[in-house]
Amino acid sequence: MKAAVIVFPGINRERDMARTLKLASGREPAMVWHADTALPAGTDIVVLPGGFSYGDYLRCGAIAARAPVMGAVQAFAAKGGLVLGVCNGFQILCETGLLPGVLMRNAGLKFICREVYLRVERSDTPFTRGYNAGQVICVPTAHGEGNYVADSETIARLEGEGRVVFRYTAPDGALAPEWNFNGATNAIAGIVNARGNVLGMMPHPENHVETALGPTDGRGLFQGLAEYLDRAA
Amino acid sequence: MKAQVTVTLKSGILDPQGKAIEGALKSLGVGGIASVRQGKVFDIEIADGDRAGVEARLREAAEKLLANTLIENYDVKLIVEDQ
């Protein structure tokens, strides 16, 4: 796994992400500055971490989506390269158009920082092969704008093509409005693009990987990715 | 030349910020308000160019960055000052 973590001004989760990527793969990821125009040679996954790129000015992720490095990220994704966007990273992927829809203000208007439950809808993606379909994982979340919205045709296409990969649920996996804390359409927490090589998700699996800090439900995502990429290499 | 680009949420898109402002106005006793939607205004100074060219460039700016056309509409207005 030769990961490249993109560093935009104003993000704050890049070190958590780098630490987790190293934990899963044994390999230090490259930290790539937003003003760079190329990815390091041999990069096999690009990660857009969480935070508040450009202070969330204009719209969350809007300025970062137009940063010089994003041309290289888009070209990488177009060739089938894996791209993972978490939290602000998900917002950036939507703003670039690599993923459909938009993340709006949480329905309750509050910034919500706590552990949530996600049902893994599919285990046959490079991102979720470390889990079983239907498995419920507990991971932290921390955002004010994670309310996934798209027009009804887009939602129907995402659902019809099985592109909703994570959904906010109760601990037993049941859908319930009180567990869909940000009001996202169909409790959508994470989606993939049509080709399945770009994943965006609001919660932070990278923060639940070490026993010293509590649950380790986030490990599956990164270990699954590392195995997938090491086998491909 | 000066210009103003206004960005507003499309109808049907939930606007919790507008709702909160609406609630605050009501609790302040400002009467007669049916609803509030929040938007953005960009005041832009134009360095050069003719009217048609400037308008096209501002539309480009709105499409490329100022508005997310999935959820927002925009309006471009040129303000020509008297010499």
Q: Which H/E pattern describes the elements of chain A?
A: EHEEHEHEEEEHEEEH
Q: Indicate the CATH architecture of chain B.
A: 2-Layer Sandwich
- Which radius of gyration of chain A do the C-alpha atoms yield? 16 Å
Q: Catalogue the unreliable spans of chain A.
A: none
Overall strand count of chain B: 3
User: Spatial order of the strands in the main sheet of chain A?
Assistant: 2-1-3-4-11-10-9-6-7
- Mind describing the biggest β-sheet of chain A? 9 strands, mixed
H/E topology pattern of chain B: EHEHE
- Largest beta sheet: strand ordering of chain B: 2-1-3
Largest sheet of chain B: 3 strands, antiparallel
The CATH homologous superfamily of chain A is termed Class I glutamine amidotransferase (GATase) domain
- Discrete helix count of chain A: 5
CATH topology of chain B: Mth169, Chain: A
CATH superfamily of chain B: Phosphoribosylformylglycinamidine synthase subunit PurS
**What is the beta-strand fraction of chain A?**
15-25%
Per the principal axes of the C-alpha atoms, what is the gross shape of chain B? Answer: elongated
The coarse overall form of chain A would be: globular
Number of domains of chain A: 1
Average pLDDT reading of chain A: 97
Uncertain spans of chain B, ≥5 residues at pLDDT below 50?
Answer: none
| Beta-strand percentage range of chain B | 25-35%
